[in-house]
Structure prediction request, 177 residues.
Amino acid sequence: MIPRSASFDLGHDRTRIKDLRDAYRQSATVDEILGRFFSDDYGKRMPIQVVADEVGMGKTFVALATAYSILEALRENRADNDLDGCYQRILIITPTNEPLFKKWKNETGEFVKRCVVKNEEDARQWFAPKEVRRIDELSEELRKPGKGPRVLVTTMGMFQGARLQNYDLKRRFLLGL
Prediction:
């Protein structure tokens, strides 16, 4: 199982967290999601999770904390065997709504700034948002090696009749069909 990362503290941000019980609840939610994704009992694994709550309850940071924990485990080769060979990227897909898209991009940086307490400078490099607007950009970013941004943020609009700009990718998709 992948545990919650010890590199961040959801209660560290005193501007966002007024009551430490909120930080404990959010941390427990991250633990529960990771436990459901990566339970040692394969029959109890739940590959799809829905996080829903009232506005302002910390859903965004819970999701980012979960993503951070998974990516950190992948980077340190501590990940579940089911993730062997996976791209070390997290894809955030927002509705086709520019303010919501920008919110997720901004909140990714805010999560690092407000909550990461170990290796913050390193985290700014790899847990950084990368805007992806086209399918070929997504393909390129997924396969890109190195220490660059690992959080890809896009909108549902990318999947709605988007044109491929990369000729080689167009050719491979056509040959694949």
Summary: Strands lie at 90-94, 129-131, 151-155. The mean pLDDT is 87.
